[in-house]
Structure formats: C-alpha cells, structure tokens
Specification:
Shape: elongated
CATH topology of the largest domain: duf1285 like fold
Number of strands: 15
Strand order of the largest sheet: 3-2-1-6-5-4
Radius of gyration: 18 Å
CATH class of the largest domain: Alpha Beta
Helix content: 10-25%
CATH architecture of the largest domain: Roll
C-alpha cells in the first residue's frame, strides 16, 4: 500500500495544505506558518525514498526534478536531520532521503543597520527567511559560507550573496568578517 507521501510525489493525489494523512502541524506549515514541529515527531523509520537534494538545492525524485515548487516548499517544512542523515517526517512516517551537501541555498542577503547593530537577513531557495545571529550562525568551510536555518539544517550561501557579505565586512583581530545580531562572523583570515 502506497503512503500518502509517495502518492503526492507521483502526482496521484493533489498536493495541498489539507492533504489527508498529514498532521495539523504539516497543514499549518503548508499554509506559510513555518516549519512543522518535526522535533516532536519520532516515528520508526519507514525506509529509504528516492529523493535527493543536490548541491544547488534542486530536489529530485527517481532522477526527475520536482516540477511543483509548492511540493518542494511543503516537504522542506517536514525535513529533519539526525546525525548526518536527513529525513522527511510526519507524526507516523519517517523516510530517509539523500542530501549532497546541505538542504538549502541562501539565494539572497540584505542588511539592516551598521556595525555591531547590523542584522543580515538571508532568504533560502524555499522562501524561508532567517536573521544571522547567535541562533542562526554563519560559518565558513574553506571558502564556502553556510548559515544555520533551523535545527541542524543549513543553507549554503550562494556566490552573489557572499560577495554582498564581503562588501559589508570589516577587518578585526579575528579576521575579516561581518556583524549580524551582535555577533562577529569571520569570513576569512587576515
């Protein structure tokens, strides 16, 4: 018997926030109220599902790209990380998926304020917005910046957004970096 999640991906049932079989939290997430409370959901592993998120944030199922942006956005709200593994989780199902790097890409950054009072606001490829700071730190892996989106789920900052961050940066003892939310995030050593 196919699961509701598998039926939705194959297009056998319409995907809408009130999809049967999904909990109220997923419906709320689908209505733009934010991610579902996946940290509260711990069903047993249902298995592996052939969903992949590539380095550029492109979602594929059985090798084919997701055609419906709304489906990607909905599934991104039920994404959970445990250790190095990623899962799509509902209160009753838990499907392991493959994530090549991190699940999101920060496709835009804007700054409000200046210096220590500056706040960097990142928007991801799935429309989620986060303000960098203590709860959403920016980190560098080599020359690649990442920002924490939520609960162990990060976004790789795209090149144009990184260049904007460099334009906003300053040199300090810790290195060259940017302020956001009262925290200085080094981008490169001096």
């Amino acid at each position: 018997m196919e699961t509701e999640m598998a039926k939705a991906m194959s297009g056998q049932i319409p995907v809408k926030p009130s999809m049967d079989g999904l909990a109220e939290g997923v419906r709320d997430a689908g209505k733009g109220k934010g991610p579902a409370p996946v940290h509260l959901w711990n069903p047993p592993l249902s298995g592996d599902i052939d969903i992949r998120i590539d380095r550029d944030g492109q979602w594929t199922h059985e090798g084919g790209a997701f055609r419906r942006e709304a489906l990607v956005r909905l599934f991104s709200t039920i994404l959970k990380r445990e250790g190095d593994a990623y899962f799509l989780v509902t209160p009753v199902e838990k499907w392991r998926i493959v994530v090549e790097d991190v699940p999101f890409v920060a496709v835009d950054v804007e700054a409000d304020g200046e210096g220590k009072a500056q706040v960097l606001r990142f928007e991801t490829n799935v429309g989620e917005v986060v303000n960098a700071g203590p709860e959403h730190p920016v980190r560098m892996v080599g020359e690649v910046p990442y920002v924490m989106v939520r609960a162990g789920l990060e976004a790789r900052v795209d090149r144009k957004s990184f260049y904007r961050m460099v334009e906003m940066g300053e040199e300090r003892v810790e290195g060259f970096g940017v302020w956001s939310g009262g925290v200085f995030f080094p981008l490169m050593e001096v």
